[in-house]
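Board notes, transcribed. Complex of a protein with S-adenosyl-L-homocysteine.
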Amino acid sequence: MVRSYIQLKKGKERAVLLRHPWLFSGAIQHVKGKARSGDILPILSEKGEILGYGFYNPDAQIRAKIFHTGAYSGIFDDDYWLTKFQNAFEVRKSVIDFEQTTGYRLFHAEGDFLPGLITDVYGKTASVQLRTPGGEQMLPALIAFLSKKIGCESIYLKKDKEEKNGEWLKGENTGEVIFKENGLSFYADVVNGQKTGFFLDQRDNREKVRLHSEGKTVLNAFSYTGGFSVYAAAGKAKSVTSLDISAGATEICKRNMELNFVEINHKIITADCFHYLKEMPSDWYDCIILDPPAFSKHISTVDNAARGYKEINLKAFQKIMPKGLLFTFSCSQHIDRVLFQKIVFGAAADAGRNIRILAHLSQGADHPTDICHREGEYLKGLILSVE
Ligand code: SAH
């Protein structure tokens, strides 16, 4: 039987040679043999040289996610994955202070040369997402690594894209976890929460909010689990208001504030942020955080998303008190840093106020980006001073 493989069209090897991890259907001449979804297939140039290996997905435009560039004479067994896991962990050891922070991203898919695999650690619990067929081939090594090297007693796997279904790979429980981030305590729900339960990518940016909050009246819009609210309070904000459209989210936010503070000037609002920003008076807040969900998950929705970002930023510019600070973010993959800045500039021009950029923000170092995979740079933010 012929071993299956993917052969590229003439001249289409460039992206693979440049180590881009996604192989699009348009580059493929043919798939030889009886390849099934999730198989690990070698990727051959038109001349027959092996360029790399990837997880095959006949149903997606990204026909293969490449995890290994170049030829490989061994087999992709547990030892192969364990070496990759160890390399990713070494990076975390150098960027995370495990005394102060027990919630962090251990494996960041393409950013750790592990396409399709996301793993967040919350103390002794790990939350795993597999986003490519075939990714389950990594699971035996993953369970061993998380158990032996990280000390995980429970491992939860979120199965589908909608994140509704999941199963415990180890140590079944309710999914409620408590962990530390920069010395502060947080609660998250790895079973029912969004993504893996908590947005760990904002850790460094939350720390920036702590540094800038003293004496400020802070509005944390799109507050979800209240990460920014807790840091603002820890930074001695005069008051903190957390706003989210979901009552479930504001409940978690309240719980996280109570985990850290006995007495705190904290107000919770369950409302639509677009409406709230429009209606609120202009002398309420001198620090506003806008960290909305991805308005654009697909390239076709970029225009609508751009309008959404412009609207909330414009309202914030119009309503923030003089000398106010705006922390504004976008996690939409299809809105890159340059476009986001243009949208925010547009809002600033319309608001007619003097605005300075104090800092450009990004995802934390435990969410690394493969330099050949610009699509991995998804979180962008600005700290703006509004006169
Ligand atoms: N800033 C958060 C993450 C935000 S996730 C953090 O640091 O963890 C996005 C949140 O926006 C979700 O909780 C969702 O319920 C909320 N949301 C979505 N649309 C909204 C709207 N129109 N108004 C207010 N909140 C909204």
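The pocket of S-adenosyl-L-homocysteine is lined by residues 199, 202, 222-225, 227-228, 244-246, 249, 272-274, 291-293 (CB under 6 Å). The chain has three domains: 5-69, 78-184, 200-386.
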